[in-house]
Design a protein that fits this description.
The complex is a heterodimer of chains A (about 250) and B (about 300). Chain A is α/β, with parallel strands linked by helices and about 250 residues long. Chain A has 6 helices and 15 strands. Chain A has one domain: Rossmann fold (3-Layer(aba) Sandwich), CATH 3.40.50. Chain B folds into 2 domains: about 160 residues, 3-Layer(aba) Sandwich (Rossmann fold), CATH 3.40.50; about 110 residues, TPP-binding domain (Rossmann fold), CATH 3.40.50.1220. The chains are: A alpha/beta (about 250), B alpha/beta (about 300).
């Protein structure tokens, strides 16, 4: 079984995003970038499926500027067999990304696509579901457990208030939640080996997908700052203020 | 121009997010119809028909919809889409699951988790875990939108609107329901709780989290944790509040022994009132706290429980 893992290069989760002075967007100049945390979990799950003998090949794919090859190399170092870079300098929306990925699904015919439930920059939580719709596949979103057997994948989903398990007919699309696994770190020998693994580059505009923007980013602002709080002397004062001033207890 | 809201429910109870989503939908300025898809939802449809501002309720009552599987709900919504300029649902795990599927099938973008309606085409939404607010204009003729319900108010009630039954049934071979496991807890869900009390690395170990239990019981609070506490193995990671965990916005958030890393602040800084208890006066958590108490948590937690 072939597993396709779409991944994304994003701001490192330990870095605070800052808004540009002209409010046109978030400023990513000289900001540390990394693999999106939910994508790390997706790669880990695919590799575990391969280690368990369920998957035979793990293909990582990303869409973005040349620099995103760094994250593909990370995926290869973690254990992916090959990588595909769909190159573009455009800022694409989830629908575009899903359409481009659908072309790769057509080309690679993976039985399972595993991807992060959302990226920590745009916070859209859309691509997996859209890809499932566009490729006519079932979807198992926000997975905390994935079991593949007999042409079916059982996905336990983290839903509000508990867990829901669904059975999807393969081929299918799964998106990862935090509890699915704990991603490993790449070892130095594997990082060296990853440099020799195949990485195919495809120009985004060669895939025949209409990439016309569907939304316009009008402005980006800092969220309203919290007004300065006060330091209380003791528990008694705290409880008193919560009751009489904040009126929340 | 008309708006379709898809109700979020568990067949028995309407999620409060639905009323808030209707509140958001009405701000678009068009008549709002509400679709309720599920099994034995007649009593629910009466509740929805009585929510202030609802024009009519569309009832899709069939066992096929009992589990809200995305493949079926999306096909049902797409079948109704021609009549609507705006399709809206709440950004719960149910809405987040089926709505992008609807958008892709309609070949339109989705605007996720709006916190403000600027006009019928333009919306504000948090990006970078709320560290920035984007104003986004939809260029599609049809808008598909999910709503962050905590940013909108509950609607009042009205004399019941008309109800219309939808006969078409959509089934799907792609997925099937296996089981559901409800979290067994006396305490409210983290994302729905009015009060949240969270512990961080300062709790020192998992056993010490029991110091939060008595306070949580008295306040009807959910218990959360920082990523540091989860990574240290004190508590399971479904308790994690933060950028990669749960995003919460309760009326009262109490951070205990939490330094206030960016990743944690991203998950709780929209709370109405924030209390921080930390023995380090320089901890960044105090910069977002409305009320700070610089003290050893092991001294003040028993005191706080007593004082409530």
């Amino acid at each position: 079984m072939k597993v396709l893992v779409p991944i994304k290069r994003v701001i490192d989760y330990n870095v605070k995003a800052r808004v540009k002075a002209d409010n046109s967007d978030v400023d990513l100049t000289n900001v540390k970038m990394a693999l999106n945390p939910f994508c790390e979990i997706a790669i880990e799950e695919a590799i575990r499926l391969k280690e368990a003998g369920t998957a035979t090949e793990v293909v990582a794919v990303t869409i973005g500027a040349k620099a995103s090859q760094e994250q593909l190399r990370t995926a290869l170092a973690l254990g992916a067999d090959k990588a595909i870079h769909i190159e573009t300098d455009e800022k694409l929306e989830s629908l575009h990304v899903a359409k481009l990925l659908a072309k790769i699904v057509e080309q690679e015919s993976p039985e399972l696509v595993i991807l992060g439930k959302q990226s920590i920059d745009s916070d859209n939580n859309q691509t997996g579901q859209m890809l499932a719709a566009l490729t006519g596949r079932g979807q198992g979103t926000f997975a905390s457990k994935v079991d593949v057997a007999n042409g079916t994948v059982n996905v336990t989903r983290e839903v509000d208030g508990g867990l829901q398990t669904v059975a999807l007919k393969l081929p299918a699309v799964v998106t990862t939640d935090l509890r699915l696994n704990e991603p490993r770190y790449a070892s130095l020998p594997n990082i060296m080996k990853a440099k020799r693994k195949p990485l195919e580059v495809i120009a985004a505009d060669s895939l025949g997908v209409d990439l016309t923007p569907r939304t316009q980013l009008v402005a980006v602002h800092e969220p309203a700052k919290r007004s300065g709080g006060i330091i209380v002397d003791d528990v008694a004062q705290l409880v008193d203020l919560l009751k009489t001033q904040a009126k929340v207890i | 121009m008309k708006t379709l809201v898809i109700a979020d429910h568990d067949n028995g109870v309407l999620k409060p997010e639905t009323s808030k989503t209707i509140n958001a939908a009405l701000k678009l300025g068009f008549p709002v119809n509400v679709l309720v898809a599920g099994e034995s939802v007649a009593p629910l449809s009466e509740v929805i028909a009585s929510i202030e501002g609802v024009n009519s309720v569309l009832i899709a009552d069939n066992s096929e919809y009992a589990q809200q599987l995305a493949e079926k709900i999306a096909d049902l919504v797409v079948s109704l889409a021609a009549d609507y300029s705006h399709i809206v649902t709440s950004g719960t795990t149910t809405g987040k699951n089926f709505m992008p599927r609807v958008a892709a099938l309609l070949d339109v973008a989705q605007i996720s988790e709006i916190i403000e309606v600027v006009d019928a085409d333009t919306f504000k939404r948090p990006i970078y875990a709320g560290n920035a607010i984007a104003t986004v204009k939809s260029l599609d003729s049809k808008k598909v939108i999910t709503v962050r319900a905590s940013s909108f108010d509950l609607q009042g009630t009205q004399a019941p609107a008309e109800c219309v039954t939808i006969d078409a049934v959509f089934s799907s071979e792609l997925s099937s329901f296996v089981s559901v496991e409800q979290t067994e807890s006396e305490r409210p869900e983290l994302t729905a709780a009015q009060v949240v009390i969270s512990g961080g690395r300062g709790m020192q170990n998992g056993e010490n989290f029991s110091l939060l239990h008595g306070i949580a019981d008295k306040l009807g609070a959910a218990i959360g944790a920082s990523r540091a506490a989860v990574d240290a193995g004190f508590v399971p990671n479904d308790m994690q509040v933060g950028q990669t965990g749960k995003i919460v916005a309760p009326n009262l958030y109490i951070a205990v022994g939490i330094s206030g890393a960016i990743q944690h602040l991203a998950g709780m800084k929209d709370s109405k009132v924030i209390v921080a208890i930390n023995k380090d006066p320089d901890a960044p958590i105090f910069q977002v706290a409305d009320y700070g108490l610089v003290a050893d948590l092991f001294d003040v937690l028993p005191e706080l429980e007593q004082a409530l």
